[in-house]
Structures are given as C-alpha cells and as structure tokens.
Amino acid sequence: MTNTTAPDRPGRQKRDTTLGHIAYVLRENPVTLVAFAMLGFFLGSAIFGPSLVPFDPLATNAARALEPPSWDHWFGTDNLGRDVFSRVVVATRLDLTISVAAVALSFVTGSILGSVAGYWGGWIDAVLNRFLDTIMAFPLFVLAMGVVAALGNTIENIIYATAIINVPFYARVVRAEVNIRRNAGFAQAAKLAGNSDLRILAVHIFPNALPPMMVQVSLNLGWAILNAAGLSFIGLGVRPPTPEWGIMVAEGANFIVSGEWWLALFPGLWLMLAVFTFNLMGDGLRDIVDPRKRS
Amino acid sequence: MNARLKMILGRVAQAIPVIAGVVVISFLLTRALPGDPAAYFAGPAADEASIAEIREALGLDKPLIEQFFFYLGDLSRGDLGTALSTGQPVIADLAGRLPASLELTLFALTLSCAIAIPLGVLAATRPGTWIDHLFRVLVTAGVSMPTFFTGIVLIYVFYYLLGIAPSPLGRLDFLFLSPPHVTGFYLIDAAIDRDFETWLGALKQLILPAATLALFTLAPIARMTRAAMLQALSSDFIRTARAAGLGRRKVLYGYAFRNALLPVITTLGMVFSFTLGANVLVEKVFAWPGIGSYAVEALVVSDYAAVQGFVLAMALLFVLLNLIIDIAYALIDPRIGLN
Amino acid sequence: MSQTSRRSFLKLTGGTLGAAMLPFLKAIPAQAAAGETLVVVSGQTINSLDLHRTGTNRASYQVAVNCYDRLVSFGTKPAPGGGLSYDYSVIEPELAESWTISDDGLIMTFKIKPDATFWDGRKVTAADVKWSFDRAVSVGGFPSVQMKAGGLLRPEQFEAVDDETFVIYLDRPSKLTLPDLAVPVPFIINAEVAKANVTEDDPWAMEYLHTTPAGSGAYKIARWDQGQQLVYERNDAWVGGPLPAYERVILREVPSPATRRALIEKGDVQMSFNIPNKDASELDGMADVDVYSTPIDNCINCLNPNFNFEPFQDANVRKALAYAIPYEAIFQTAAYGRGAPMWGGEAEITDTAWPRKSPYMTDMAKAKEHMAASGYATGFEVPLSISLGLADWMEPTALLLQESFAEIGIKAEIEKIPGANWRTAALVEKRLPLHLENFGGWLNTPDYYFFWAYKHGHLFNSSNYLNEEIEKLVDDTLHIPMDDPAYAPNVKRMFEIAFEDLPRIPLWQPALNVAMNGASGYEFWFHRQLDIRPLVPTSS
C-alpha cells in the first residue's frame, strides 16, 4: 500500500516526493504526529521490550502477590506475584503481531475480492457478493468464537478468526468504490489509451478506494486487538501463561471491585493506547494516500 | 413503481443463497466444535451406557449427512429444536431474549448516532482545527477500550463508589416485575401499560450498558461521518455547487451530507450487526438476558440446536437489514443501480 | 407466571402477606418480620426444574432440594468454617415418619407422614413415592446411575403396600442405600398431576415437570425466567421440617463475579452463593458480611498423571511430581487458604479419616532424586490440561505447577479445554496425559470415593489407573457397614496403595464459600447447592 502508485499530477516541487508529502501531512496535523510517535514507541517496545524489562514476565513469586505499584514493581504484581509492568511490555509484540497479521490478511483478501467483484461485475460479482453476505450474515464475534472454539485456541487461529470476520468489510468498501468509478471518465480514458483492465484497476481505480480503506485499516487494527481481548474474556484467548493484554484486562477486571485496580488498569491502558494509536493513525494514513490531497 | 418492486423481489431472491449458506456453514461449524454434548448432558456421574443412551436420544449417533437432513426437515417445519442447556425450544428462548438484545443495541446506537453524526459533521467542516483534533481524541478513546472493561469500570464508579446507578442486575431490578408482554421491549411495553415506575426502572437499568456500548460505537460512526463528509466536501460537485453560489447550509446538508450518508449507512449497518453479536461481553457484565450471552453459553457446551438457531436468527435479521440498506443506497445514490 | 397477572400478582402477594401472616406470627420467630423476602445471587444458571431430565445442570438440583421432599434427609452439625453442615451419620425423617429395616437388611419399610400433602392439597401416598422412584430408575442418565449406587435398579424393587406404607426390596444389603435416599435424586413427585400430563412419547411427564414442578416441598416456584431469575414462594402447609422463615426467595443469576461481589458488599442482596476463594477471604474481614467456607466432604482437588502416558507409568516420575508441587504456594494463591491442606501428612496410616493428607510435601531435592532414578532423567514434555469452566482455581494452580515442573526437567504446556470438551476428554475418553481434577462423592465414605475415582474404567478414574488389589478391596468394602471388622483394615490398605501408586496426587480439599449480608442460618450440603429452607433474616 505504498502511495507511489497514486496518479502523479503536477504540483509544487517540494511535495512531489513521497517523503515530503508525509512530512507535510505530519506538520499539518499534530494529532497524527503524536499518533506516529506513539506507534514508534509501541514498535520499540515490541522489538526491544523483552530484553529490557526488569523481571521475567512468567516468573511467579507467591510471597509478593497482589502488591500495589511500587519502585520495585512499577505496575504492581498480579495474583501470582508476576510483575505487571514486565508482562505489559512483553505482551506488546504478541498483540501487535496478532492485529497486524490479521488485518494484513483481511486487507489483501478483501481488496482482491472487492476489486474483482466491483470491476468485472456480472456473475463474479453476484457470487462473491453472496459469499461475503454469507460471512457477514453471521454474528461476527460469535463467528470468531466458533472458529477459535472449533480449531483450538492458538495464536494462528485467533489471527485467522479475526481476519475472516474482517474480510467482508474491506471487500465491500473496495467493491463500492470500484463499482462507482469503473465507468468514470479517467478509467475510460485509460482504457482508450490501451491500458489493460488489470492495470486500470490496480493503478487508476484501486488507489481511490484507499482513503476510505485506510479508515477501515486503522479501525480494524484496533478492533483486532479488542477482538482478541474479547475472546480472552470468554476464555478463548491465548494460552496462559503467555502475557497478552486482553487476557490481563479480562482477568484483572475481576479484581477491580476488590481494590486491586492495577491488574486491569495498566494492561487496559496499554491496550487502549495501542488501539488509540492505530485509530488516530487512520486520518494521517488517509491524508498520505489520498491522491487529491497532493494537488 | 413496478420496477422497484421487481428489484426488491430480486434482492430477496438473492438472499436465499445467503440463508442456505448460513444454514450449511452453521451446521458444519457446530459439528466441528470440540466436545461431546451427550457426555456433557449425561451429567456428573453418568457411565458409558447412559452417555450412549443420550447420544441416541439426541440423534447424534447418526451419520452427519443424515443429521443434516433431519435438521433441514425440522427447519422446514419451523422447528429450531430444543436447547439442551436451557431445556426450552430454541425458538422460545430466542423470542424471549432477542428483544432484550435489540432494545439494548438500538437504544445504544440511537444514543451513539445522536452524538456521533453531529460531531462528525462539525469536525469535517473544521478540519485541522483544535475542535477536529479534540474530536478525534475523544471518540477514539471511546472505541479503544474493551467493552467489558468499560462496563466494569462504569459499574465500579457509578454503582459501587457513587451509588447513583441501580444494581447491575439485568433488565429490571428485582423490585419490579416485567411489564405485560407486547413487543418485548420493556420501555415500549411499560409505556403501553402506562406504568411509569417500571418504565423508569427499565430505563435506569438500560443507561449503563447502553452507555458502554455507545462509547464503543461512537467512533466508527463519527469517524466515518467525518471522513465521508471530508471526501464529499472536497469533491468536484461541491466545488461546482459552491462556485454556482449556493448557500453554505444548502451545500453542506443538501449535497455533501446526502452523499456522505452512503458510507455512513454502510458503517451503521456493519456496526449494528457487529454490536448485536459483540453484545455478549456487555451482557455478561450487566447480567443482561440477551441472545449474545445465550449464544456464548450454548457454544461453550456445544449445544448445537441453540447455536444454529442463534446464528440463523441473526442471519435473517442481517439479511433484512442488508435489504433495507441496499434499498436506501438506491434512494440516496443515483449512481448505483439495484441490478 | 403469566404476564397478564402482573398486577394481580402484586395484589395477591400483598393480600396473602396480610392474611397469611397472622397464623404464622406464632410459628415464626419475631425476627422474621425484619424481612419476608430473601434475595440471593449466583453465577450459575438454572436450566430445568426437573432433576431427572436429560441435561439438567448442577445448579438446578436446588429445585429438587427446595421444592420437593425425599423420604429421609440428613441431620445437621456445626461445620468447620462456620455455620452448620449436614451430618452424614444422622438420617432424619422428611416425608417418612418412620422406617424399619429387616434383619437381613434386604427389606426397608417406610411409613409416610399421614398429614403430608402436595401443593394441590392432595395427600402424599405410597403410590406417589413408587411412581417417583420408578421414574428415577427408569429415565436413564445421571438419576439412574445415582439410584444404582444405593442398590436401587428396577421398578419391581418398589412396592406401595397401602397409602402410607412403602417398601423397598434390595438385592443385597448396603450401607449406601439409606443415605442414597437422602440425596436430591429420589424426590417425591405428585404422581396424579404428573400422570395427567404424560404423553405417548413422554411417559414420565418430563416436558411438563421441566417447567412446572409438582411436589410437596417447602417452596413452590412462583416464577421462572430462564437465565434471569427463579422466585420461590413458601408452601405454608409443609410438614417435612420446621416452616422456613422467608415467605419468598428470589434467586438472581449474575454471571460477573465482580458484580456479585459489589452487590453483596453493598447489602443489595442478602446472599451470594458459591463465591470465589479470593472474595471469601477478603469479605471475611468485613463487618456486615458473614462468610462461610466449608471444606467439601469427600472432595479433593488433585493432579492426575495418566497411566496411558508412558513416562507416568514410571512410579519414580509420579513421585517426582508429588515432591515437586509447591503445595503451600498453590493453596495460598489458588485457594486463598480456603479449604484444607492435603499434603505433609503422617507416613503411617492409623485411621480411616478421609479426605486425608498425603505423606508428600514440597521437596525439590527428593523430586530430583526420583527423576534421576526414573527412566526419564533428561525430562520430557507433557501438556497440562485444565478446564475453562474451573479456571479460577485451575489456572493459577497450573501456572505454579508448570514453573516447578520445569525445574525437574518436565516441560508442561498449559492447555485450556472448554467445558463441553472437558468432560469428554478428561472423564469419558480419559486421554489427558496430565490434568487437574476435583471429584467429590455425594455419599461420604472413602470406599465410595475409591469406587468412582480409583476403579478401572470408572468415570472419575481419569488416570486410567488399574490395580487388582484396589479393585478387590473396593468391591469387598463398598456395601459392608462401617462397623464391620473388615471395613477399617480394607480402607487403610486402600489409602496405602493410593499414596504409593499416586494415580491422583492430592493438592487440597476445596471449600464451598457463601457470603451473607443480612441473613443467617446457612447450612452446607454435600450436593453443594443452595438449601434455602433453614435461612432466617438477621435481626437488626
């Protein structure tokens, strides 16, 4: 999803380059800047976190169970005496992997299905539409639950389940956008100029679907994490003792009323910030890839 | 008029393969679930013989294909089977629980739309200003919290600490009895009964779970409104309209908003179906007797009939919703046909 | 229960309260006036009002307890952990006025209370008892299995001699028969009402009684909203015991434990049934809330190594496991100290007390010695399975076990199994190599526990354990009276073998926790369900 495929139009020299355009968008929008900075932070903790944390995230210490935050344990300890801070940081990698993998999978699948259906129409469109409708007709969260319950609760299956329920979202957005534009002037012009259908679709029409899709991507990256958290709440999440934000919040939620707020709050905060980051990035991504913003 | 009717009939015809697909997939999915319902329902001290007895009674000893045709036969008679976990006909369970979920979801979505759409339009007309940024941060914060977490925090603060919310005990406090059944929506039924106290009681119980859901659904609706409005406002026909000297209000609401509605409605439809399914988490926290929690319980004990019935009911609901959206599309966007 | 009668229901209850209160003021202690309605919350859902029905879950057994009577019941005694407990050694009359057992122990004759009536006013007769017992042994599934445990197998064993005389003929005398009549299963149904609702496909009126109980018990069902609440209303004509204090009891189903805790802490409900260990230990310290934690008789939380899994066929490996378990840490983090420790006992077995502490304790040096002496000195990998439904104690236990076992070279990966699959995988197919298990026997004798958990092929022997001596010992002991001279030596020998062979490694005896705020009189029962009959409001 690079923006180099966006149709080039004459503009001022400075914004002609990709980087220049990104820099422009970031300068224009401080919230996007903050979002990208936070993304950097999360990527940093995903990459370096496990080697930097003060405690082994899996090591229990029954003698120091359920301690509130202190200098030793910044985020306190859980019911087995494990360091919540270490667990929260280490969980970053897994949570980001789940959401990015799931969204990438559904983005690619959805784009292909949607473009094909929208551009060629006819029976392909009809069949694909019925297929997507069938998936969407399922209550999505329950479908995800069913898939994980049937296949077993491993990380891969959580990713597949999340990807499956998101495919129709992309496919429908792409289909609608492509369907509207397939007979637009610029598409017909390109066709007359001798471009192949595939090229017109990929180079001229599809990029127009990117801005609304970026909003979906950003929302879905967040939803994917929340979806995994929801599965954990039902008990279909990642296997213990692997640290994962959703499980930590789900288990910690039962400790709130008894006063051990740090168990749910910190992983909840991290989870929320990560989802927050993804969601805020949406607008920035949209601005970056929107062809019209470049003129 | 006749053509429109034809198109609607065509859409209905297209829904048939979807329902068929749902029936097949849900049947296969439930059979793929781990666990043996016969062993589960035989009880804590059952031996092999009594498990076999129950398996036979449930028809689970037959080949899959035969089970499927039995299921189809039952379906054609409108019989969704009996849910083993509740011991009631699935159809009665769903009829009793669907209104609870629908009432909660619709109330929450109405609440959400009432806040989200104006906010989205407001933000889109002032892109890049502090209002826009504040808007983004606020709605995004809402969607970034897992609903069960928000729910428990709301209970903790408003019920446990402040004591201003009623006890989170489902649709009505135990002081009240449910209003006479008309629609199954307590707010409507109580209003029909002119029972103001019960109406207020039901409303009070609704507020926290609905707020939890609304917080979560605010963002997709608001952000889609904003994005669609921005796109509409920057499009050529708006420029043309502006150049032609049309009033700001007319441009904004008459042209831009009308065009922006298209993706907003798509999103709304998706959010509705998503929320109704994802309700389960909120229902669990607030002891809400809806179909979401029903489905989860059924799924955990591999209660085939209940899961299939639930999925089918949701699918029918969804198809109906889709039909409405498709028709709305045609009414709003003249470019898209109903072919 | 019908919707249209909502207002009249209110009026009716208002009316009956006024009218009905007068005669009972004498019967009920004055403090009863403090509250006529008890509100209880529970995390479990009731799925049927008929215990005999296929698929009726455990939580629903309470309907059999509160709405129906049995011939006999158990007495009560003070319980460790507060409140009262049932007393297995004392059998008390419930619907039976008296009973005699023939000298050879084969014929039991029960006299039914002459003043006992069903809710519809009809007299309880021996024919009703016979019909109900016939039903319990005929419907199959759990009720029939439980009846079988007491030697009750066929309808021909039951005879209604006259209206008030009921006779049971046994194939062999058994110490388990009379106690088995006091469990929830053999409850007495109004046979006339039931028979009026039988159909050709449904000769035992399963469909009717599923939603409409017809009994003689202390409480009637005023309303049942499946998945939400159950409303009990007192039967003022009850003769099975002292008339309960509460006019009405509302049982609300609240799935979230955090919500339940908030409700009981604030006093919005008077009772929270079966609360998590952690809440029990913390609520215990609060002024308003009374917590009862009763160790569950004949129940032990165990770690079971499966003999089908090759390394566990090695006795040294099983002993290494037993020495590597961090018992105290598990008891504190998973059970919050609720219940009773089951480790570090005397090596020599001198009595028949059960459950009893195993002679093992945490000793990593010994664990390593045993591992080194085994054929698996370099260690091995094994999945450690836990049930999703019991994750609240199984998960922390499994995590601590996993950590400890890693030290002796056993790499255990935790596998969470959903409820439906758990029973199949663990108990029916018995295919889980290493898992946690918590069987508890209703009939409180060690040989009964061994019958279910140590005999080969039996449901709770999830370790696939087979020992010829145990097989014979259990068969010899199961039905003989506890004062038989062979009883004590047999049972002691079972204990010895069990601790030597270790197909089940005892961790601790779990407790059933109940919190009350504004009510008292709680009694613990072996069936672990709520008996609302003895509850009284706390005088304020």
Summarize the structure.
The complex is a heterotrimer of chains A (295), B (339) and C (540). Chain B is an all-alpha fold and 339 residues long.
- CATH class wording of the largest domain in chain C: Alpha Beta
Mean pLDDT of chain C, to the nearest integer, reads: 87
Oligomeric organization of the protein chains:
heterotrimer
- The fraction of residues in strands of chain A falls at under 5%
Radius of gyration of chain C: 24 Å
Low-confidence region ranges of chain A: 1-15
Topology, number of strands of chain A: 0
SSE order of chain A: HHHHHHHHHHH
Q: Can you count the helices of chain A? A: 11
CATH topology of chain A: MetI-like fold
Q: Which CATH architecture of the largest domain in chain C is right?
A: 3-Layer(aba) Sandwich
Largest sheet of chain A: none
Beginning-to-end CA distance, first to last residue of chain C: 33 Å
Under CATH, the topology of the largest domain in chain C is which?
D-Maltodextrin-Binding Protein, domain 2
The percent range for helix content of chain C is 25-40%
List the helices and strands and how they pair.
The complex is a heterotrimer of chains A (295), B (339) and C (540).
Chain A: H1 13-16, H2 18-28, H3 30-52, H4 84-120, H5 122-137, H6 140-151, H7 155-181, H8 185-192, H9 197-234, H10 245-253, H11 262-289
Helix pairs in contact in A: 2-3, 3-4, 3-11, 4-5, 4-7, 4-9, 5-7, 6-7, 7-9, 8-9, 9-10, 9-11, 10-11
Chain B: H1 2-32, H2 37-41, H3 48-58, H4 64-76, H5 90-125, H6 130-143, H7 147-161, H8 186-192, H9 196-233, H10 236-243, H11 248-285, H12 291-300, H13 304-332
Chain C: H1 6-24, E1 37-42, H2 61-67, E2 72-78, E3 84-93, E4 96-101, E5 107-112, H3 126-138, H4 141-149, E6 158-162, E7 165-169, H5 177-180, H6 191-195, H7 206-211, E8 219-225, E9 229-234, E10 248-253, H8 257-266, E11 271-273, H9 277-283, E12 290-295, E13 301-305, H10 315-324, H11 327-334, E14 340-341, H12 364-373, E15 380-387, H13 391-407, E16 410-417, H14 419-428, E17 434-437, H15 446-453, H16 468-477, H17 487-501, E18 505-509, E19 511-516, E20 519-520, E21 523-524, E22 536-537
Parallel strand pairs in C: 1-10, 1-11, 3-21, 15-16, 15-17
Antiparallel strand pairs in C: 2-3, 4-5, 5-7, 6-7, 8-9, 9-10, 11-19, 12-19, 13-17, 13-18, 14-18, 20-22
